[in-house]
Amino acid sequence: xxxxxxxxxxxxxxxxxxxxxxxxxxxxxxxxxxxxxxxxxxxxxxxxxxxxxxxxxxxxxxxxxxxxxxxxxxxxxxxxxxxxxxxxxxxxxxxxxxxxxxxxxxxxxxxxxxx
Length: 115
Fold this sequence. Notes:
Elements: E1 2-11, E2 24-30, E3 35-40, H1 42-47, E4 53-57, E5 71-76, H2 78-95
């Protein structure tokens, strides 16, 4: 399973960032409105820019370790990335419940414990 995300900021090394290693992290706005920071390999980290769309691998690491990989595997530039981002955002807006149509919360009286 793969998820598209938009690059918000890239953190590598520089005068404002002190690091224990040379790894690069990227803060992403995920297509479903989450904001997460993942590590990106140095080859893609040098290519990715703020505003680019990336594809994140959410496949499981292994059966023994059932957690998502969270590997950034592709950087989509220009119209290709914009098209994918728009498609996912349209889907999210269409399927997100609005405040007007959400079901009201039913208030229930407290249950008394008999013991």
